[in-house]
Prior knowledge:
Blueprint: H1 2-14, E1 21-26, E2 32-35, E3 39-42, H2 48-56, E4 65-72, E5 80-92, E6 95-109, H3 113-119, E7 126-131, H4 138-150, E8 156-161, E9 165-170, H5 173-186, E10 189-200, E11 207-217, E12 225-227, H6 230-235, E13 242-248, E14 252-255, E15 262-265, H7 267-272, E16 285-299, E17 302-311, E18 322-326, E19 337-342, H8 351-358, E20 369-375, E21 386-387, H9 402-421, H10 423-426, E22 432-433, H11 437-443, H12 447-459
Parallel strand pairs: 1-6, 7-11
Antiparallel strand pairs: 2-3, 4-5, 5-6, 7-9, 8-9, 10-11, 12-13, 13-14, 14-15, 16-17, 16-19, 17-18, 19-20, 21-22
Amino acid sequence: MQRFSAVIVVQRLTALSLPALFAVIVSRLPSTFRKPPHQWISAAPESRELLAICLRKLRAISKVRIIDASFIWTEPHSKRIKVKITLQQEALEGTILQQTFEVEYVVASQQCPDCAKSFTANTWRAVVQVRQKVQHKRTFLYLEQLILKHSAHKDTINIKETKDGLDFFYSQRNHAEKFVDFLTSVAPVRTKKSQELISMDIHTSSKSYKFTFSVELVPICKDDLVCLPIKLAKQAGNIAPLTLCYRVGTSINLLDPNTLQTTDISTPIYWRSPFSGLADVRELVEFIVMDIEPTGIQKGRYFLAEATVARASDLGSNEITYFTRTHLGGILHPGDSVMGYHLTGTNFNNPQFEALEESNTLSPTIPDVVLVKKHYQRKKKKPRDWRLRRMNKDEGEMLPRKQDQARMDEDYEMFLRDVEEDQELRSTMALYKAQQAKKERDQMEGVETASTAETDATEGDDIPKIDMDDLLDDFEDLDVDDDQ
């Protein structure tokens, strides 16, 4: 009788009928699989969650014991998942039979409810409107990198680009509130909330709303020239009103290039009495350093120095020079190019600067030139060894005009140069290695091309370069634009 039962168990294991293929439903959203009957869960490749979904498909093994289950490597683009399963069942007392199977799954695509909403117009429940009243997009480019690094956009169903900012659409109100909290933690913003009644059931008094969150960024960016109100400057450590913005985080960080004194303007203080920047990076003028002498004062990475500069456009036509104090004494040398603001003979339509000029004690402290950053001569636009991720944005029905597109490309190129030159800025974002196809193609070309590339490289040896060890390897090609 015991031998007969053992034979039955052996036949049950060996004749276990497992279908050749199983179907695993995946959503358009990254790593989102269907858990029957109606639930959708997030499962990474070769994770415990995905393995549980695969094992639930095997109804034929419900009467046996599963000892081990593991994934077998398959090509990522093959739409196949292979699982190795070890089954076990007791035949006699102290006798255990064991057998191993390989099961193959086919990954099939299907729209989940969130996908269906993203493809259908006017299905959002909440929208976050991020705005900044400036003429360039450099702040949004930096904010985009912070969002991508922290995956703060994972719950959005659509991202639409507008004239002065971006719109983030969500299917739930709490997702929008979470994103607003993230923006508040990384940038000085002011938020407003409004709601609109969509429908109401008069029998149960249940109401349906659409929520709108308005997020306004401060209109001051890195390297902007800022003229503080005199009263606010006295309250902020008695700093000189004419300052330079060297960083924008959760507060506005300002620097006096004449004394290296710094101060922080918090978000509540700024919105209590808002002010705009005096000049931005589009008004920078190139100067040539004629002479520079350090004063020996250092504060962090800044070195105070006294410099004599001349406008690059004036060389050969006149001998006008300007004396100024700068915080770039550690990197500037005679003959270097430097970008700065030329204040002599410039008219600013700014009430704070007019009050500064009318002050008898503060007007003599206005310099002729305010140097901002060192300028590196780039002879030729060469492909970079690194790249940044970009978000998939909906440009809407109106495509940008040709001149607007050229301005956007210029802003992006300027942002990439800021990333190369500012190590502190670079440390807050994730950089990825560029594709090696172009490099391999260049290596296959003749000696003439190689010598030309070597000449171009020697012409810009002082240009800051990013260490390849600081770059990341793995990224999703679908979410990355090939902006070299």
